[in-house]
Write a structure and sequence with these properties.
Strand content: 5-15%
Oligomer: single chain
Low-confidence stretches: none
Bound molecules: shikimate-3-phosphate
Number of strands: 5
Strand order of the largest sheet: 2-3-1-4-5
Mean pLDDT: 96
Structural class: alpha/beta
Helix content: 40-55%
Shape: globular
Largest sheet: 5 strands, parallel
């Protein structure tokens, strides 16, 4: 029989991971999904598969607005899911309409990180178009500052991912939900 330590009781809700790029949403989402045998959706991956293009190329060919429309389409579908681990792009919850859909039937976890840690994680990664500037650390610092209140406002649970393994964060999330 499962006990409260080896299962994740979502009671048919979804677990939505939010936070800035490089805070570990995808790897932590995958880890939770593997640990507790639950389905996993990463909205950025779903968009790239459906468009057969990288996010970098979607921005380059069609612009950010087009990408945001694709995000909005996916968000509308998410409340139909149950017991699913969902990680979303760092900018997804900034849209009030997306936030509305993301809040339906879900527990929202904010993976909090620091500009320095995010920079360390993304220093050699050019797949995030908004961060490909001449001063990546300054851009991260500015965007994170602009977004922190929104991430905090919508989250049910806030957990720092700084200097932690994905497994440790996954277990801390499980503990805070049990
Ligand atoms: C974005 C974050 C990215 C991706 C796109 C825009 C943002 O997702 O959706 O590059 O606005 O912060 P990750 O948070 O998975 O990097």
């Amino acid at each position: 029989m499962k006990n409260k330590f080896n299962s994740l009781q979502l009671n048919n809700k979804n677990l939505v991971l939010i936070g800035f790029s490089g805070s570990g949403k995808t790897i932590i989402g995958k880890t939770i999904s593997e640990l507790y045998k639950l389905p996993f959706i990463d909205t950025d991956i779903s968009i790239q598969i459906s468009q057969n293009l990288s996010i970098h190329d979607i921005f380059r060919k069609f612009g950010e607005e087009h990408f945001r429309n694709l995000e909005a389409e996916i968000c509308k579908e998410l409340p139909k899911k149950q017991n699913t681990i969902i990680s979303i792009g760092g900018g997804t919850i900034l849209s009030p309409q997306n936030a509305y859909f993301l809040q339906q039937n879900s527990i929202i976890v904010y993976l909090k990180s620091s500009p320095e840690q995010i920079y360390k994680n993304l220093k050699y990664d050019d797949s995030r178009p908004l961060l490909n500037t001449s001063n990546k650390l300054a851009t991260i610092t500015k965007l994170l500052e602009e977004r922190t209140d929104i991430y905090e406002e919508y989250s049910d649970i806030c957990i720092s991912s700084v200097n932690k393994s994905p497994l440790l964060v996954a277990l801390q999330i499980q503990k805070s939900i049990s």
